[in-house]
Amino acid sequence: MEAHIDLRAATAADRRFIEDMAVEAFNWNPDRASLSREKVLSDPQLNKYVIDWPREGDSGVIAVGPGGESIGAAWLRFYTAENPGYGFVSEDVPELSIGVVAGWRGKGVGTALIRAVVATAGRVSLSVERANPARDLYLREGFRSLSSDKDADTMVRD
Ligand SMILES: CC(C)(COP(=O)(O)OP(=O)(O)OC[C@H]1O[C@@H](n2cnc3c(N)ncnc32)[C@H](O)[C@@H]1OP(=O)(O)O)[C@@H](O)C(=O)NCCC(=O)NCCS
C-alpha cells in the first residue's frame, strides 16, 4: 500500500522549488554530467519549463513532507508551435513536468503528484528519454507513446 502523501496546489511562492524540480528532471541520469541550476535557468530551451512561474494557464501540485517541507512537484504548462516543449503535441495540450527530491523517490510521491495534476486536466503530454525509469511510471499512469525519436518518447494521456 502506498503511504499517504499530503498534496497542495502550487502557488507563486513555489517558484524556486519548481525551478529546483526542473533541474532534477533534466538531471535524471546520474551517468551524465549534470546541468547546473544556472544553466537550466538561462538556456531558453530549458528554462521555458519554469520561467515566469506561474504564467497564465499554468497549474501545479506540490507534495509536502512530514515537516511541512516540499518534497516534489508536478506542473502543467502550455507551449506554442513557435516555441514548443520537448513533448509538444498541440497548443491546447499542456505538457507535464515532474520532479521528486532525491531522498523521497520510489515511495509513491510521483504517482500521487501525477494523479493529482492530471485529475482536472483533459489531454496532457510529456517527453521522456527512453532510458529513464520514469517512463514505466507514466505507462502505469495511463500515458501512451505517441511519437518517438532516437532517444525520447512523446507520450499523451487522454
Ligand atoms: C520520476 C519521478 C518524478 C518519480 O517519482 P517517484 O516518487 O520516485 O515515483 P513513485 O514512487 O510514485 O513511483 C516509482 C516508479 O517511478 C519510476 N522511477 C523513475 N525514477 C525513479 C527513481 N529514481 N527512483 C524510484 N523510482 C523511479 C519507476 O517506474 C518506479 O517504479 P517501481 O517502483 O516499480 O520501480 C522521480 O523518481 C524523479 O524525480 N526522478 C528524477 C527526475 C525525473 O526523472 N523526472 C522526470 C523527467 S521526464
Automatic annotation (TrEMBL):
Looking up PROSITE patterns in the UniProt record yields: GNAT
**Pfam name, any one:** Acetyltransf_7
Query: Which residues are in the N-acetyltransferase domain?
Result: 5-158
> Domain of life here?
Bacteria
**Name this polypeptide is given:** GNAT superfamily N-acetyltransferase
Higher taxonomy: Bacteria, Bacillati, Actinomycetota, Actinomycetes, Pseudonocardiales
